[in-house]
Please model this.
Amino acid sequence: MLVAIGAQPAYAQETAPQDAEAAQQQNFDIVVTARRREERLQDVPVAVTAVTGEALRSANITQVQDIQQKVPGLTIQSSAFGSNVLQVAIRGQRQFDPYITKDPAVAVYFADVVQNRPQGLNSGMFDLDSVQVLKGPQGTLFGRNTTGGAMIITPAAPTDRFEGYVTGGLGNYDSWRLEGAVNFPLADWIQVRAAGALQRRDGFTKNITTGQRLDDEHKDNWRLSVKLTPFDGFENRTVINGFKADENGIGYKLLGSLPGIGFGSSPTVIDELARLAALPFHTTTSDLVLETKIKTFSLSNVSEWDVADGVTLKNIFGYRYVDSHIPFDLDGSSMTFTDANDKIVPFFPSREDMRVRQYSNELQLLGTVLDGSLDYIFGGFYFLEKGRDRQASGGHGGVSAGGVYLGDRVTYSDPVRNEAYSAFAQFTYRLPFLEGVSLTAGGRQNHDKRELTSRNLISDGTCRLVDDAGQPLNPCQAYHAKSYNRFTYTLSADWKVVPGVLAYIAHRKGYRTGGFNISATTPAQFTPFNPESVKDVELGVKTDFHMSGGRGRFNLAFYSQNYKNIQRNQGSLINGVFTQTIVNAASARIKGFEAELALQPVDFIDFGVNVAHVHARYSSWMSNGVDIAASQFAGTPAWTIGSNLGVNIPLGNIGELGLRGDIYHQTKTNNSDNNFLSAWNRISPTSIMPAYTLVNGRIDLRNIAGSRITASLWAKNLFDVDYLAGGTELANTGLGYTAGFLGAPRTYGAELNFRF
Model:
């Protein structure tokens, strides 16, 4: 939970009038739960960025992907599976795909429950209390052990009064949004809150081959929250959430080729690139008709019981169901090729269908002893995920070694079972003989088990699973299981140098469990990839300061990470068939820093800027026989910068005018972990996603004529910059070309908000 000290709770921002001074006070006095207990943001000895629900609204952030503009060190990109299946990265740690046989590097929690699969993450950004981003390995307190960090999304909680809001908006591309919430206490001990959001928008990318409008929005969200307090010292919170997307999918576009590699010199590829160069930027020629359908349902139940003075027992139960059906075109073009039998075959149509259920439960015992000098937490966590993952690909994926197209290949991972147990403890001791100095130590013992039953066939029924002698299996089925045990930990020391200045040092170890290659066909390919591990050191300082008539906050963190057994996708042509496998790259060193400055020089002005630098390079890695040491991590810009300026002008009986501008910039990014052409050992131009800068703006007229009505105008990408939001590198896998996703053009609209 995140609230303001001495100000209105964040969840009330949409439902009660609030002046500019109170909103700005809230942005400075923030309480977070980064160590599983409520603490002021400025007193937590780790790097955490927290954004209140009101700050999200004022920045016009309505999807998870836009949060990166507010959080240094965080990057979020769409994947080949679309904008509803995100790639979340912190400090260079990221997951490239949503396969059920591997875990994310960054865990996303909604209402305290981990969302292990990324399908549907780009939703739920309505009626929120806060978003917290914890940076660095999470090796002790949070449910799933991760190497990169955690994002915690907290919905607004029920209150003890009847209240609510309705927001409606219209925009370009025939977009509209309807959002609202109503809170009603049924009794002194029962409080209920219902909320929902509907989003519609025509696509901004035109597919001239199929006539589809891609990058559209058709999302339905609903949420029901219930809080029970049947007796003093006990509270139970239940959050039920549903999401559905029925969209055309992402605009995937052919970007470039590598001459002399795979199909890079093919006249078909060269002609297609020339054709695209003559078309508008937001155009694709993909020959695949896309129909993306995703449904999710989740339940969170949190009970807290003050069993004794200073002792709390807390239980977190979670359930989540995901059903997704996503076609995608990995070449993003209308290209075809002719096989040895003169059959015309599309290049790379693909599809993934996933259905998965997850269950989790975490039990915590929290308390304070020794006259308030020692905080402790003990706990245990259980996680179970069961489901199936079906992948199909045509084109190159179904070509035999002789160049004969055999048909689509289909991989069935059914059933898949991922199970995890862990026990943890953490202690924070305030030294009695050194005022302002605290020491923290925590550890977690982790056990993970993965089970996979796989079938892999060509569409004519031919089995692609073979034994050690290369003979097809009969029946066409393979079972594999593997367990992993790891110990992870957290150590830190902090010193409150003077009031308003905290210095700290932290050292942590986190790990991401191993797993299986979902598209494997041979016993060797089914060899499990190993867990990856990260050990880091972080140095930081957090400061609050006052100016004449105003106040400010400045936080700075430096870090270094030692990254081993890195899990990476590696594509290659095996017996003439394109196969993507997960391998353990040798090692890497990640270094960087993050800085955040927030200023309120006078009551009616607030200014903020954040800067992050990530230097992520492989120490050693032989990828497909090529030494790519010193390559920059894919999808990791070296620099990101965000800034905002807000001005609030009282207009007497008319209301209050709010003016806000936001700027976000990121430097160029590699789409491939192999930054070099193997033949010439130079940077591949097709691998580069150019730098870009986005400017957003918003104008609010609040509490019009003393009413509870606010009218707003907003715009994103105000200067209509053409930019790439992400991509998939196929050039260095032997295919010789690469494709990417197009960033949104200028979008704008108007909103009307009514609170009651």
About this structure: Residues 724 and 742 are 5 Å apart (CA to CA). The two ends are 24 Å apart (CA to CA). The chain has one domain: 18-755.
